[in-house]
Amino acid sequence: QLDLLWTRKQNVMYNLFDWPTQKHSKLIILAIANTMDLPERIMMNRVASRLVCLLFKLWDFSNIVRFFCVLTLAKLSSPLVGNIVAALSGDARRCLDICRRATEICEFVSQKRTPEIVRMAHVTEAIDEMFSSPYINAIRNASLHEQIFLKAILAEFRRAGVEEATVQQVYRQHVALCRIEGMQSPTVSEIMAICSRLGACRLLLVESSNKYLHMRVRLNISQDDVMYALKDE
Prior knowledge:
Organism: Pterocles burchelli
Keywords: ATP-binding, DNA replication, DNA-binding, Metal-binding, Nucleotide-binding, Nucleus
Number of domains: 3
Number of helices: 12
Subcellular location: Nucleus
Helix content: 55-70%
InterPro entries: AAA_lid_10 (IPR041083), Cdc6_C (IPR015163), ORC1/CDC6 (IPR050311), P-loop_NTPase (IPR027417), WH-like_DNA-bd_sf (IPR036388), WH_DNA-bd_sf (IPR036390)
CATH class of the largest domain: Mainly Alpha
Strand order of the largest sheet: 1-3-2
Distance between the termini: 30 Å
Family: Belongs to the ORC1 family.
């Protein structure tokens, strides 16, 4: 994940992509990132100039269903799984997680009676289990501004192409979302309190520092889970 190697001076990425250019080097570096315009968005010219980029579209519903059917031959449940995964992020890994958990549930049930194949009930149970974690319930029960703060984090991650941001950057997104909703924006002290509460719930990983607005934050759960928890908000 190339975006996780980003640093302020970008020395890590520069050195990484410099190795294949060395004399007699036989090294080829392949890197992936979820942001299509990552080189233009965050990379210095000295790093971006060393890259050859290939763009791949997000998987839509039909792609995921075909992928699911090829792997499992379970056409019964593939539309359900495909719809849920495509609605979130198009990440086929989540599809595989659901399939794996459904298989585990089926195997556990089969230990108590005659063996059986994975059925729709197993898939549905796996989906319900995956999207009803304590973290997701915590987000759904969070205050309105705590939920907006999480939305602001997602917006900032999409803008920057890096899954880390300062509280100040997230605060700007939070204020913008409040304006769109016609709500009063929280004060800086209120934002810091929101950030602290979300960190205490382990929804966020907050840098231990006295930098306040310049503290860096990361999500402690996947962006898919945050989007799922907030999809009806």
